[in-house]
Fold Solute carrier organic anion transporter family member.
Amino acid sequence: SVLPTPAAGSPPPPAPQEPLEPPQLSGVPGASGLESLSEYEEGPCGWGSFQPRALQRCNTPGGFLFHYCLLALTQGIVVNGLVNISISTIEKRYELQSSLTGLISSSYDIAFCLLSLFVSFIGERGHKPRWLAFASFMLGLGALVFSLPKFFSGKYQFGSLYEDTCLTAKNKGSCSTSSSPLFYYLYVFILGQLFLGTGGTPLYTLGTAFIDDSVPIHKSSLYIGIGYAMSILGPAVGYVLGGQLLTLYIDVDLKHSIDITEDDPRWLGAWWIGFLISWLLAWSLIIPFSCFPKHLPGTAKIQEGKVSQTHQSGSLQATDGNFGQSFKDFPAALKNLMRNTVFMCLVLSTCSEALITTGFATFLPKFIENQFGLSSSSAATLAGTVLIPGAALGQILGGVLVSKFKMTCKNIMKFALLTSVISLVLTFVFAYANCENEPFAGVSESYNGTGELGNLTAPCNAHCNCLRSYYYPVCGGNGVQYFSPCYAGCTQSVSKIHPKVYYNCSCIEGEIHITPTPSSVSLEAQAGKCSSQCKNLPPFLGVFFAAIVFTFMAGTPITVSILRCVNQRQRSLALGIQCTLLRLLGTIPGPIIFGSTIDSTCILWDINECGNKGACWIYNNVRMAYMLVAISVICKIITVFFNGLAVFLYKPPPSVTDVAFQNQNAVLTAVSLECDLNKAGNDG
């Protein structure tokens, strides 16, 4: 006879005579019991038989996290800090067009996308800390290669100074189409970026999975959040370090023998020093990572106590204990993950977030500069002050809250959905931030009633032979901004005063033609943009900071959700797929879409002597603000939709208690059935 199933809430029945198999936790690799534990090759910290006792203090999750943070910081410094801040200097030094330097920037993502899936699949069964030692080597090598053009291109030769005032017999530019011999250093920069992309691949796939292996389930989000926050602080350190190094002359040994200063447009800074520092820092981490064991002590015990939260769906293919051992399993593993609807929803939500975050990281300084009339350096400083601390704070807060409240996978996804909705609402701050353009001669304002709008040349400056490719704005005493002192018709200047002042300007009304003295200057125009009358900057920065915090607060929870909703053996590959799609659908098209959108609001382009269109000088501020609102809101709605769909579709596995009861009932049923069969046989 079959024993009845225990009622809900009743104590479990006494154990049968036969020992029970422990319930298999599908989130843990291996079958069960000893087979599962034997998979985790724990060991001491060291190299072979050399295992110093002092090193064992680092053989902990905290010790690994410390070195992981240093590597993430180094990667952020080089890839998102030094490269970005050095691009304009590299353009000038090696005579490269912006489209080509854009290729340099995207080379990192190209290498990452090509390698991410393979590295994450192969490395899942491998020695993850040694993969990170390889990552340290490649990041260092990439930084070293990136700096090499400095040592093979010779000394920098700066030309004669461009005169910015109105003189009739100069400023005629030459139109040259021949390429510079320095052009071929482009390929060295691309090679360096490819090495950097190769080194970055294991960091956010295998490194994150190793951290998740080594700590209890409720601490995983905290550790991952700290690691990701350090990768966000990296660019801030890179910008500060790079900015300081650009105040040194590019050929540091010639600093005292040159007669130009930082204010001179011919000045180029020592962009290459930061890459050498990063090279040494990255290679100093090779030895620490190589000494970590395949699994930290206590990993098997931690894994034994974890409960699977893998999404349950009939479309997912069951995998056995040997799945993933061979590269032949790669297509099946890829297909299995792509059919996990919850995983794909989470990945697509991160792609839409990555599109707008990388877009703003690239163009927020330009937005602030144009909307609020600030200098490029001031706008970049303000943008960094808002973006970097906000992103880091959001990553840490998200990890801390998930860890503190010990959220389940479904609750983590609900938390990410909530923060996404809040950041969507805050995104409308861009509609509030728009400011009308200030009066600009030849663009929105005529030259004292002469000339045509859209044409910088007017009767008052037609004799000056001004170059439209030389943008050096000045603010007239009449409150109108001019493209350059030349277009303002200014013939003389005083450079000892800061900011530089100009006088005898034929295009500015009410000028008094006197020769100024240091104590009395006829200030008809001064260098720089006219101060903006828009007072929306402080509230804009405050609300945008909150939007950044809530945007990144979902970052760590979504990563943890991805680790939880997929099979334990496929976590690294899942992160590899996420990183690949993140770049293909997010970080690569993001700056392109934002750049094209912002360019569509341009009202004055740079046109050089050859007639080629270059950068945009003046934008329609109101239109720019509304276009950015449109992009941001569309992407945020996509994020909210996929996060909500993931919550709706997620089906957790039965609880461990349910599994235990089912196993006990199955065993008891089998024992009873065997007894009945034996009895029937004996009776027969």
